[in-house]
Amino acid sequence: HDAAFEAAAGAIAEAQPKAIIRLGWEMNLDSTAWFARGREADYIAAYRRVVGIFRRHSNEFRFDWCPGWGPQELPADLAYPGDDVVDYIGLDVYDFRYEGSPEERWEKFYLKGPFGLEWHRDFAAAHGKPMSYPEWGVGNFGDNPYFIQQMHRWFVQNQDNIAYAAYFNVDGLWPTQIDNDRFPKSRDLFRKLFSR
C-alpha cells in the first residue's frame, strides 16, 4: 500500500504540513483491519514504514499512536512501535461499560482498569511523550454527566502533559453525538465545563 500512503502523505503535506497523523489507531480491537494480535511485529514494522513515507513529505508531521482503552483483545503495549516514530501517546475512551453505577464504572474500568487512564498516564510518562485523547465521549450506556465531569477533571489534573483532546461528536455506529437531544444532561455539563 506504499503508493496509497505516498499519495495521502503528499496531499496532507500540501494542505497541512504540520498535521498530526494517527496511524493504525485502536490496533488492540479485533474490529480493526489492522488488529495486531499475533501480528505485533508486522504492525510495528508497518507503522514504522508508513511514518518513514510520511516524513519524506513533511518533517513537521507529528504521529499519534492510539489504542482503545482497556484490555480489549490485545494488551496495547505489545504493539508500541517505538519512541522514534511516536510523538503523542493517545487513548480513545468511551462510556461503554454496563456493569455498576457511573461512579463504580469510572473507578473500575476507566481510571484504574487495565490499560485505562492511569496506565495511559504512566506509559506516556515512561516514554517521555505527551498524552492525547483523539476520541472520547459518552455512548452506549446513555446520558452520563458523571463521565463528562470525570473526564474534565482528568484533563485538568493532567493538563501539563496533554497535547490535545477531541470529543467524538458523531451519531454513528457508536452514538456519541452530544449536541443533539440524546444526552441532554451530558450536553449541558459539557457546555458548562468546556466553554470558554
Q: Which features does this protein show?
A:
39% helix, alpha/beta, single chain, six-stranded parallel sheet, 196 residues, 6 helices
The gist of it:
The protein has helices spanning 2-15, 40-57, 102-111, 117-126, 145-157, 184-194, and strands at 20-21, 62-65, 88-90, 93-95, 131-138, 162-167.
Give a short account of the largest sheet.
6 strands, parallel
Strand percentage: 5-15%
Uncertain runs are none
- Helix fraction bin: 25-40%
How many beta strands in the DSSP annotation? 6
Mean pLDDT: 96
- The rounded distance between the terminal residues' Cα atoms is 43 Å
Q: Which oligomeric state applies?
A: single chain
Judging from the principal axes of the Cα atoms, what is the shape?
A: globular
Topology, element by element:
Elements: H1 2-15, E1 20-21, H2 40-57, E2 62-65, E3 88-90, E4 93-95, H3 102-111, H4 117-126, E5 131-138, H5 145-157, E6 162-167, H6 184-194
Parallel strand pairs: 1-2, 2-3, 3-5, 4-5, 5-6
Helix pairs in contact: 1-2, 5-6
